[in-house]
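ligand=guanosine-5'-triphosphate
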Amino acid sequence: MKLAMIGFGQAGGKIVDRFLDYDDRTGSGIVRAAIAVNSAKADLMGLKNIPQENRVLIGQARVKGHGVGADNELGAEVAEEDIDEVQNAIDAIPTHEVDAFLVVAGMGGGTGSGGAPVLAKHLKRIYTIPVYGLGVLPGTDEGGIYTLNAARSFQTFVREVDNLMVFDNDSWRQTGESVEGGYEQINEEIVRRFGILFGAGEVGDGQEVAESVVDSSEIINTLSGGGVSTVGFASEEVDMNTGGGLLSRFTGDGGGDDNLDAANTTNRITSLVRKAALGRLTLPCEIEGTERALLVLAGPSEYLNRKGIERGRKWLEEETGSMEVRGGDYPREEPEVAAAILLSGVTNVPRIKRLQQVAIEAQDNIDDIQQESEENLEELVEDDEDELEPLF
Ligand SMILES: Nc1nc2c(ncn2[C@@H]2O[C@H](COP(=O)(O)OP(=O)(O)OP(=O)(O)O)[C@@H](O)[C@H]2O)c(=O)[nH]1
């Protein structure tokens, strides 16, 4: 599946930047275009892979390249005021070659959390292809303003996109890591999961024909209907030289041993599917009640079989209670077999329920919060003025 990715704010830009790196490393070809939008000049300068001409600075008249200091309303305002700047960058994309937009943003800050829903709404008015969101929730220890921003942003972002895929930083925090180092690892986990899902729809010319390949329309159908999605993932290293099972190398004539190999392959797949669905999801939730799901099995084609995928798919149907579970394979020459599961339209999500509660409570003490936000912004502009003066 070919995507036009737009990273809004610092987290969004860094994640899209990493998707480009993933594409280079794996040749998956999912990023047709990559754009970064930010109100902080320094954040745009820190990106490695997104071309300079696709880095859009917004809000210059208001915040002079310093960022909006976690002020989510200001983030939304500058996005609205400068939406034409963003559109200019999008105009350079051959959108007829793109299956969907993916707007990526951290929901705890100001620029991305305020701006991403504004951009999604704008894109939906103009284009007929789907507009998806990938929203990152802040850690619960990041402070009240981040939680509140996320609560507000979530409500609008989920309404403006065709589906909001969520990654919760809170469940992925590493202890003993520097914040930056931690994000590097977390971002790699993000691109690996979504890279396999979207990459599955890109298997095409010149690649080995699989038994039941996933195509982009299956991804789009799983995401259609809207709501919130989460992704499960599990992988196991395999030896690329030995084929579907060790035995096949040593027994020339197949027969019973081939059956044994097939059984090993099937068992590996079914256990990976269970691990992926019951292990740590990008957004932890109860999988029961999921509306639609897509199972992708990636790996060297000799390690994939229809029986395993079909069993995994049936098991997912039972666990989720959904009648709409799709499944397929994604043959690729990496020394691992991986199961990625997209659970779309999840309903029982404790973190989201808590955020909704926060949004309701916030109505009661809005003055305190606004003051915290204003102080935050002043502090940031002062800091930036000391540190970033040479840039302007
Ligand atoms: N997964 C991930 N999360 C990040 C990363 N950087 C920041 N975050 C999260 O994103 C939130 C902050 O959003 P940012 O993207 O830094 O903020 P912004 O949108 O640029 O807005 P302002 O800085 O307020 O102008 C925090 O709550 C962090 O949890 C990253 O590289 N990866």
